[in-house]
User: What shape does this take?
Amino acid sequence: MLKILRRLLAGRRAEAPVRTPSDTPVEKIDRADTAEQIEILARGGFETEASTRETILDAYLNPDVIAADDRRWVEAEVARAFARKRADEATWPLETDFDRLAIAFDRLDAAGIIALHCAGYTRSDGISDAAEVYHRRKERGRASRGFVFYHGQDVEAVVFGQGLYLAFGSFDDRDDTRAAIAAEIVAAMEAQGLRTRWEGDVGTRILIHPIQWLKRSPSDDPREA
Assistant: This one.
């Protein structure tokens, strides 16, 4: 999600006035808001402790104006959030809903439906990422019929206990193909014990609900990756 937050905040940062180091004021951060963002990244499960710290300090906050005590607080809060997450992970079942989702995505991907986890921050980001994978695979002689993904905003929602929405589409842009791909996605989720809601409208996303978002975080140690 480092790339996700950088995309989200690029516009905001671009609008900020340019200052030289000598006239840049030191500002206090909103610790409650920052703690929530840290928790989202930790619970989302796509970032390590180190990358979360980097994201918050260098992308979510303005590194040029953050006070030294706030920087230390961020580093400590990230450590606390990941300590809580690791403690919780020790109590999780061997296979979680995320693991079942990942199995379904792997099987869809093998069947020619590009399946992407946390693809960008918005729907347009996800479509762009799917198109990029499509062209890359096509160059290698691998055909793809369609795609399925969820994006960063969907992860934020599911972390807070909501369902997970899956966007989908086809590369021939035909409604009957899209409907067939949606049916395959629904079947793949149901085969893993994940309950879905979809009314057959190719203009609406598939909802997985309920889902308990338990995704183990990657390690900062490359030897454990």
Residues 97-208 form one domain.
